[in-house]
């Protein structure tokens, strides 16, 4: 099976990442090479692929510098299943908490959702056509039912020769007439002329229960998938009265689900998870400290040892089938401001051979983050307020001042990296966001003076440990 992995060169991958992440060139180069190596491996003969193992990555850097965003954008580029997990949620087997194997089950579920979405997109036009045919038929029947008609009368035969009684007003419609009428009706529906007509349709309603349990095997979640033929809790169909406009949306999805092969989706999803899946393990430094022998730290080293077989390669049972982790790319990340990477057990260090140091963000980086990325904060807020008819703009000096304040607060309080900009921007635009529906001033420009008037006192309070930013 040909897996859908992009044929991007490492330089092209870095260029795509540059659209969303400022700086961190070393980290981008490392993940770009890792992604390209996957493409190279998949082009090898099948018998040689098994010998090529992924080179897992350890990202080291403070919070808010782009570690998670790099991994997430990389997965989107590769069209690969991706999950992000927190190492602090896991505990050693035998303690209350999540089993490390749950990350693989989450990866399999994410892969199924990804493949199902792709398959439904492929058949969406056909599903729309089928749904439209169903709606036309239902609307036609509803219209014909509501049309006034003469009451059918029983008529005696006019002569003895014709002794067969018949009903006056009861006739068989010509098929050509019906086809022409429904073709015209279809065009009217496409032109939204019958959107308010009420139809009664039957929709599938799941009746399966959902359980959450803790077991030695680590199956935190047990649920019955009603899509399986052998489900002991069959779905039931309930009647709903909805408009034609609502029915068009509901029926397209219903038709699409009927057309996809769920068994084939699950098989392909497991293959995708095994061959191109990416698992991002955040806060790995929180399980890297030395054990104190008691208290909450007792299972730190146990978590690391439980991670070893998963990262090295093992088979995990999921509800979609067994999933091997031999070729899953693991990207671990942590701030390591208290512990060090060398505090990880040697076996785990060896399974994360590529080390990347991410730089702390400075004032110039903050300014670039405000306007340079494709999803820059200033663009996000501008687009949101456009929906209310309000236009906001930022002067270059205003961006300088916002970046200055973010740097100052990070330096004198907790350094949370680029996330500080979210807090500052929300404070700066708080009044406009609240008053936008009733505001009369539709053009608002932010200058350095405006930013200073709004934020100066808040920044002072924050740096005096009266935290408001």
Give an overview of the whole structure.
- The protein has 16 helices and 15 strands.
- It is of the alpha/beta class and about 475 residues long.
- The longest helix has about 45 residues, at about 100-145.
- The radius of gyration is 31 Å and the shape is flat.
- Mean pLDDT is about 80; it is low at about 150-155, about 165-170, about 210-235 and about 290-300.
**Total count of strands:** 15
Unreliable segments (pLDDT under 50, ≥5 consecutive)?
A: 151-155, 166-170, 208-233, 292-298
Shape: flat
SS-derived structural category: alpha/beta
Q: Report, as a whole number of angstroms, the end-to-end distance.
A: 51 Å
β-strand amount: 5-15%
Q: Give the averaged pLDDT, no decimals.
A: 79
Largest sheet: 5 strands, parallel
**Can you give the helix content as a percent range?**
40-55%
- Using the CA coordinates, give the radius of gyration: 31 Å
Number of separate helices: 16
Sheet with the most strands: spatial strand order: 2-9-12-1-13
Break the fold down into its secondary structure elements and pairings:
Blueprint: H1 10-18, H2 25-42, H3 46-49, E1 57-60, H4 67-78, E2 82-86, H5 102-146, E3 153-155, E4 166-168, H6 175-190, E5 198-205, E6 210-212, E7 221-223, E8 236-243, H7 244-259, H8 262-276, E9 278-282, H9 300-312, E10 315-318, E11 321-324, E12 329-334, H10 346-350, E13 354-357, H11 363-371, H12 377-386, E14 391-394, H13 396-412, H14 419-428, H15 430-435, E15 443-446, H16 448-463
Parallel strand pairs: 1-12, 1-13, 2-9, 9-12, 14-15
Antiparallel strand pairs: 3-4, 5-8, 6-7, 10-11
């Amino acid at each position: 099976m040909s897996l859908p992995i992009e044929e991007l060169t490492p330089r092209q991958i870095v260029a795509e990442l540059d659209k969303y992440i400022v700086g961190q060139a070393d980290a981008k180069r490392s993940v770009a090479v890792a992604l390209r190596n996957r493409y190279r491996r998949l082009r090898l003969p099948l018998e040689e692929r098994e010998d090529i193992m992924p080179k897992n990555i350890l990202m080291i850097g403070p919070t808010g510098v782009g570690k998670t965003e790099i991994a997430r954008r990389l997965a989107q580029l590769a069209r690969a299943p991706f999950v992000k997990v927190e190492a602090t949620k896991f505990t050693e087997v035998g303690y209350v908490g999540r089993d490390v194997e749950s990350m693989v089950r989450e990866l399999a579920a994410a892969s199924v959702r990804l493949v199902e979405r792709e398959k439904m997109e492929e058949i969406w036009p056909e599903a729309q056509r089928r749904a439209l045919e169903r709606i036309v038929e239902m609307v036609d029947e509803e219209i014909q039912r509501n049309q006034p008609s003469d009451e059918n009368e029983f008529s005696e035969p006019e002569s003895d020769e014709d002794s067969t009684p018949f009903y006056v007003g009861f006739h068989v419609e010509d098929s050509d007439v019906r086809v022409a009428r429904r073709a015209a009706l279809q065009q009217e529906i496409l032109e939204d002329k019958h959107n308010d007509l009420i139809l009664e349709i039957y929709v599938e309603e799941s009746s399966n229960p959902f359980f959450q349990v803790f077991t030695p095997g680590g199956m935190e979640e047990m649920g019955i998938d009603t899509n399986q033929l052998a489900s002991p809790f069959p779905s039931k169909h309930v009647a709903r009265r909805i408009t034609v406009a609502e029915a068009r949306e509901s029926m397209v999805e219903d038709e699409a689900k009927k057309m996809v092969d769920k068994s084939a989706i699950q098989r392909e999803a497991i293959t995708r998870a095994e061959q191109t899946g990416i698992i991002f393990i955040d806060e790995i430094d929180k399980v890297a400290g030395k054990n104190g022998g008691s208290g909450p730290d007792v299972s730190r080293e146990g978590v690391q040892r439980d991670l070893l077989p998963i990262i090295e390669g093992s088979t995990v049972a999921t509800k979609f089938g067994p999933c091997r982790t031999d070729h899953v790319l693991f990207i671990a990340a942590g701030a390591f401001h208290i512990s060090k990477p060398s505090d990880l057990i040697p076996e785990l260090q060896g399974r994360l051979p590529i080390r990347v140091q991410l730089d702390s963000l400075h004032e110039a980086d903050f300014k670039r983050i405000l306007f340079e990325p494709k999803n820059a904060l200033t663009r996000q807020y501008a687009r949101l307020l456009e929906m209310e008819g309000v236009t906001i703009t930022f002067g270059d000096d205003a961006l300088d001042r916002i970046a200055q304040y973010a740097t100052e607060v990070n330096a004198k309080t907790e350094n949370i990296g680029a996330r500080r900009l979210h807090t500052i921007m929300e404070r700066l635009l708080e009044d406009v966001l609240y008053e936008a529906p009733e505001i009369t001033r539709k053009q608002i420009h932010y200058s350095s003076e405006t930013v200073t008037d709004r934020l100066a006192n808040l920044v002072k309070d924050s740096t005096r440990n009266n935290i408001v930013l």
